[in-house]
Amino acid sequence: MSWALVPLTDQQKEIQQLAREFARREIAPHADKWDRDAAMDPAIITKLAQLGFLGMMVPERYEGLGLDTVTYLVALEEISAVDASVAVAMSVHNSLPTQMILRYGSEAQRERYLPAMARGEWLGAFALSEPEAGSDAAAMTTQAVRDGDGWILDGTKAWVTSGNQAGVILAMARTDRPGERRGARGISAFIITPELEGFRVGKKENKLGLRASPTVQLSFDRMRVSANQLLGQEGKGFVYAMQSLDNGRLGVAAQAVGIARAALEYSVRYAAERRQFGHPLKEFEAIQFKLANMATRITAARALLYSAASAKDRGEPITQFSSMSKLFASETAMWVTTEAIQIFGGYGYMKEYPVERLFRDAKVTEIYEGTSEIQRIVIARQLYAK
Question: Which residues are catalytic?
Answer without folding.
Answer: 369
